[in-house]
Specification:
The chain is an alpha+beta fold and 312 residues long. It contains five helices and 13 strands. The strands form three sheets. Strands 4, 6, 7, 8, 9, 11, 12 and 13 form an eight-stranded mixed β-sheet that branches. Strands 5-1-10 form a three-stranded antiparallel β-sheet, with no helix packed on it. The chain starts with a strand and ends in an 11-residue tail after the last helix. Belongs to the SOS response-associated peptidase family.
């Protein structure tokens, strides 16, 4: 459902945007893990790395679970039990996971059941341009043949709110406010069942349409986020031939006579100075077809004098 995100903030700005209060009420900034892997982008697609916010307790056993870390992770969860050596061979899509089935599917039942939320700007703009905090689940995968471990995540989705239902029937599970973010991340103090109560749709969201340039993940410019107007009024312009036809119709086409105006008894036969043509006494007819018909009848009824055989 959610196939594009955006997080184009510089690393130091993103760090300040993720400021929080720890359990003692002190203002803190999250620490980075593998900061060099973070690449700002206006157009992040699945399998790219995105910044994920999570509890320090996932990495340090004795850490305070209210303390936070930012770690770039692969978008598209690779479960820890996956046995292939290449993560791209995973046969199913784990970019998103449905809230109503995530506790049942094996893909999301891993040793790391703690939740993470990803502070990315979605294609939608939320609550006065704050970071759009979406709830997610992450896992750690170790290659069977050894090598660097891979951290990856998936975004939890819920039924769309009324405002978004015309666009899509699913939307990301948005953690609305610092209290919700804190409860979702602090798995040391908040039970899984309590945290799941935070997963629901919200109307606290505004949005705008963006250009189709986001469909190509290689496009990485501000245009990917710029609002576009879906209703484009296209002005129709007549071609040269059409303009000439319209001009002819305006100046030379026969005008309809007003039914209330008495018609004049006039012949529509052209007033040629020919000895062969005289005014017709036949009922008048309008238009080229009427002229032709009158001509033919005249020819049949009375042959012009110049064409009669001479006789004594």
């Amino acid at each position: 459902m959610c196939g594009r995100t955006s997080c184009h903030l510089p690393r130091d700005v993103l760090t300040r945007a993720c400021a929080y209060q720890d359990r003692r009420g002190q203002q803190r900034l999250p620490e980075w893990r593998d900061p060099d892997k973070y690449c700002p982008s206006y157009n992040k697609s699945p399998q790219s790395d995105s910044p994920v916010l999570l509890s320090r307790l996932h990495f340090e056993k004795d850490a305070d679970s209210s303390e936070r870390i930012i770690a770039p992770m692969r978008w598209g969860l690779v479960p820890s039990w996956f046995k292939e050596s290449d993560p791209s061979k995973l046969q199913f899509n784990t970019t998103n996971c449905r809230s109503d089935t995530m506790m049942e599917k094996r893909s999301f039942k891993s040793g790391s059941t703690g939740a993470a939320d990803s502070p990315e700007n979605w294609e939608k703009v939320w609550d006065n341009w704050r970071l759009l905090t979406m709830a997610g689940i992450f896992d750690c995968w170790e290659p069977p043949e050894g090598g660097d471990v891979l951290y990856s995540y998936t975004i939890i989705t819920v039924d769309s709110c009324k405002g978004l239902s015309d666009i899509h029937h699913r939307m990301p599970a948005i953690l609305d406010g610092e209290e919700a973010v804190s409860k979702w991340l602090d798995f040391g103090e908040v039970s899984t069942q309590e945290a799941l109560k935070l997963i629901h749709s919200t109307e606290n969201i505004t949005f705008h349409a963006v250009s189709s340039v986001v469909n190509n993940s290689r496009n990485n410019t501000p245009q990917c986020l710029a609002p576009v107007n879906l209703v484009v009024k296209k002005e129709l312009k007549a071609s040269g031939s059409s303009q000439r036809m319209l001009q002819w119709l305006a100046t030379k086409s026969p005008k309809k006579e007003d039914s209330k105006t008495p018609q004049k008894e006039e012949s529509y036969v052209p007033q040629w100075s020919s000895q062969f043509l005289q005014k017709s006494s036949l009922p008048t007819k309008r238009g080229t077809a009427g002229l032709l018909e009158q001509w033919l009848k005249r020819e049949k009824e009375e042959e012009p004098v110049a064409k009669r055989p001479y006789s004594q």
